[in-house]
Amino acid sequence: MALQKRELNAAALGRVRGASSQIQNTMRMVAAGVPLAAEPKRDRLKAVLKARAGMSSTLAETMTSSIVAAGQTARATPEAEAAVAAAPGGPERIFGTVDFVGVAFLERGARASRGVARVAFRDGRPLGTGFMISDRLFITNNHVIGAAGAAQGLTIEFDYERDVGGSVRTPSRFAIDTNAFFFTEERDDLDFTLIAVGAKLDGPKSLCDFGWCALSAACDKHALGEVANIIQHPDGRFKEAVLRENRLVSRLDTVLHYVADTEPGSSGSPVFNNDWQVIALHHWGSPWRQKVDEQGRPIPTSVNEGIRISAIVKYLRDKHPVLGDVQRTLLEQALSLGESISGLAPSGAGAPGAATQPHVDAAGNVCWTIPVEIAVRLPGYGPAPVPAPAAVPGPLPPADPGVAEKIKPSDDFSDRAGYKAAFIDGFSVLLPELSASQKRDAARNRQAEAGDDPFELKYHHFSVVVNRKRKLAFFAACNIDGSQAKAVDRNKGTVKPLDPDSPELESLGDAEASESWFPDDRLREEDYAGQQLYEAQVVPGFPDPRSMGRTERMFQRGHMVRRIDPAWGRETMALKAEADTFHFTNAAPQVGFFNMGSAGKLRIPHTGGGRLWRSVENHVLRNAAADRLRVCSFTGPVFSDDDPPWRTEVIEGFKLPLRFWKIAVWAENGGLRSLAMLADQKPVLDAIGELPEAATDEEAFDQVSRVKDFLSTIAEVERLTGLDFGAAVRDGDIRAGERSHEVSQPDEIEATLSQRRRGGTNGRASARRNAGRRRNRRER
C-alpha cells in the first residue's frame, strides 16, 4: 500500500519541528565559518575526516578537537561568533570551505548520474525518480510505487536528459519485473520500494550501460555541516543536478534534513556526498516557516528530508531472512556492492577524487584539497596572527606526508556487513553449519539483533564464529574479489591494485609479530584468547625479543583470514578490511615460520620452505586477481581432545591446535568448484618431544620446519571438524572421493590445482599462465 501524501507531509513536518535546534545550530556554525562543528558525534566527525581527507588517526583526532573547540567558541556569545567568522586567520583558526574539489568530482558525478532514471507511466506521464543499486535492482519511494500491481503500467526511463550539446538524448525504457523482486515499506520514516528492472521496451542502450549507485551502511559517509548533491527529475523534467547547494543540517535515526535555496528535488532521487556515495533517498521537501534565527539573521527556508541509506540497509538486512531464495540472492548481491571500489558501477571505472598531500599556502594555512577543503593556520607563516580565543587548542604541527599511521579498526561494528553467502554470482555458499554440540560451545555475539546469526561476528568482507570452550575460532569465512584486490603496505599506509604476478604477494599475507592486535567487545573477555596468550613467551637460545630467530620459533598470532584476502574495494574500504583482520577473534597460535612462510633458509628437505600453506592461499588469490574471480575462503583449526595443553598458567585449560584447514570455493564453467587443504604441526612435537617453548636444545628448533601439508577433501575436513559445508561445496570438490595427498613443493600444489580444474581450455590456459609466473619469479 502506498504512503499517502497528507500522512507523509504531516509526519515530515513534525520531524523538522523536532529537529529545529539541530537545524539552527548547523546554520549558526555555517555562518561562523566552521560548518563541521555542527556534527555532534565526535567519533563520526573523526571517521569522516579519516575516510574523506585521507588523514591518519592522530591527525584526524587533532583536527576534530580543533573543530569542536572552534564550534564551542562560536556558540559562546554572538560577539564571539562574529569574531570567529570575521577573523582572517588566527594561529589556530579552522574553517571549512566548499569551493575546492578534485577534478574527478565531475567525472564521478557523471558516472553516478547514469544510474538515475525517471519513473513514468507508459504514456509518458512522469511519476517520480529512482536509481539502480545493482545490475538488477532499482529503488524509489513507496509513495511513488506502493504496490506490485501498480508497477505493471510503469516504465523506468534512462537517459531522459540533454547531452553536452543541448540536444535531447534518446531514452531507453524498461519494464518492471515484480515477479523477480518487489519489496516495499510504507512507514513514513522509511518510505522506499525496491524492484527488479525487467525487459527493455525500447531505446538504444542495454541496462548494463547505466551502472548503479550502491547502498552502504558505513558510518563515515557524512557529517552535519557538509554539503550534498542531488540528481533528479524535478516535476518529471529532464534530468538535473543540484551540486553542492544542499547543506546537511540535522540527522535523526532514519532521516537526514538538508536545506537549500533551491527547488525541492523529486521523490526517489539519490542524495550524494562529495565522494558520490549515496547517503539518503530523497522523499520530501517543503518551506520551513522559521525564516530567522535567535539573533534575527535570515536562514534558508527550504527544508528537504531524505531517508538515510544506512537505515534502509539495516531494515533490509533485518527482513532478509523472510525473502524467497531468488529475492534473497538478488538482495545479498546488491548489498555486497556497498563495499565495492567506490559505490559506483565498475563499468565506468574511475578513481575517486583523492586528497592531495598537505601544503602550506601563502597565508600560512596547511591545506588538504579534498571534497571539503580544511585549513589550519600555522605559526611562523604569512601575515602576523590575530590572537584566538583561549578555548581553541594549540596549533597543529605539519604532517609528514611520507608516513601514514596504521589504521586501527573501529570498535563501532554497526557498519560491518560480514561474509556474504551470495557473493559468487548465481550461487549461494552459506557459512558452515555448526552441530548441536558446537552451538552450545559457540560464543554469542552480545550485539546481535533479531534475525541475526547469534554466533556470527561480522567484519569488513569476512565473518568469524568463535569456540568459547577452546578460545579460538571455529572458522573464519572470507569473500575475495579478485577484480578489486588491493596490496596494502601497512608501514607506509599506501594502497595499490594487487598485481597477481608480483613477487610481493609472498610477503603480503602476514604481518610481523610486533603488530598491534585488538579485542572485540561483542564477546566477553573470557570467550576468546587475547594478548595474554602470546606475550612473554620463553624461547631458549633467543633471549633478544627482537631476534628474527626467536620470532620464527615462537608461537605467533596467526591470521585465520589473511590480512591481504579481504583487502579489496575502494582504498578506504581495503584499509578498513585489512585492519579488521587484526582482531584476536581472527587469530590462532601458529609456529612463526609457518605463519610467516620463512623456513626456506633452514634448508630442511621436503618441507617446501614452510611455504606450502601459503602456496594454496597465493594460488587462490593470484587466480582470483588474474581472472577477476570472486572466491569464498574458509579457514580454521582442527580441535582434537589430544591437542597438548599450552600456557595454562595464562588461560586455564587452553589446548594448542596442531592442525589447520582451508577451503576455497569459486565458480567455473557454470558450476561451483572447491578445494580443501590441511596443515599438520604435530611433527614438531614428534621431533623434539615437547613444545618449542619448553625445548632446551637450540638445534632442535630446526625441526620446527617439519610441518606436513596435505591436499585433502571437503568430506575429510567435515569429518575432522564436525562442520557442515553444505551440498554445493561438497559436490564441487575437485578431489572428491580421493585420499589426502601429502605435498612437499609449492609447484606441486599449483600443478595439481591446474590439472584438477575442470574446463579443458580454461584449465590448460591457467596451467600455462602459472608456469609462466613461476618462470618469471625464478628469473627475477
If you had to describe this structure to a student in words, what would you say it looks like?
The chain has 780 residues and is of the alpha+beta class. It folds into two domains: 1-31 and 98-354, Beta Barrel (Thrombin, subunit H); 416-779, Extracellular Endonuclease, Chain A, CATH 3.40.570. It has an eight-stranded antiparallel β-sheet, sandwiched between helices. A six-stranded antiparallel beta barrel has the order 2-3-4-8-6-5. Helix 3 crosses helix 4 (57-76). The longest helix has 20 residues, at 57-76. It is globular and about 75 Å long. The model is unreliable at 83-100, 347-405, 598-612, 692-708 and 758-780 (pLDDT under 50).
Based on CA inertia axes, which overall geometry fits?
globular
Gyration radius over CA: 28 Å
> The CATH topology of the largest domain is what?
Extracellular Endonuclease, Chain A
The helix fraction, in percent, is 25-40%
Question: Biggest β-sheet: count, sense, barrel?
Answer: 8 strands, antiparallel
Q: Going across the major beta sheet, what is the strand order?
A: 18-19-20-25-26-27-28-29
Q: How many helices does DSSP assign? A: 19
- The average pLDDT score comes to 75
- From the N-terminal CA to the C-terminal CA, the straight-line distance is 66 Å
